[in-house]
Target: Lipoprotein
Amino acid sequence: MFQYVVRGAAALSLAAILAGCNTSGAGGGGLFGTSSPAPATAAAPAGAVVQGVCPKVVLNDDSSYYRTYAKSGSKDDNDVVFQASLAETTRACMQSDTGMTIKAQVAGRLIAGPQGHAGTLSMPIRVQVKDGDQVLVNELVPFSATLASADQPVQFLFSKDISLAANPSATTQVVVGFDQGAAKVVSNKNHSKKRHK
Model:
């Protein structure tokens, strides 16, 4: 016996996001004068049962931004090529007697920095399911979004299906953020159309 459970943390109308997106992904603001799209109310799918425990999707504040730089080792704002940010979240849960499948979705935005240009950015996104100090799921998910123009920010929607062997508790959370690994460097070679300051 299955129950479909829908919840929205800072809920969004996913249909509206998908209609406005240029890539498969979700929308957040950047640090170069762009603004986040205004959140709307998420509509539950027809026949959804709004009950039970559907874990919240939360963003890791320390890893909600991801930048690439034109120079190795640089952290200078003027050297930024691409910047991606995560903003709003929503989720839907399919519950059974033996476990749960969570569809976690996060809205984000990709913009060009001062050294930016049209192109595709590959972003490593870390998805964890935590219950207190216990980590139930820990996955690194590759994701990409494309800028058609350095002057045209793009929204994206990241979506991930997560399977749990047991039903979650009231303290279970899905934590999403960019994986902050080695320094990211993007060459501007063969890109003559940089973002104008």
User: Anything to note?
Assistant: Residues 111 and 152 are 7 Å apart (CA to CA). The first helix runs from residue 14 to 20.
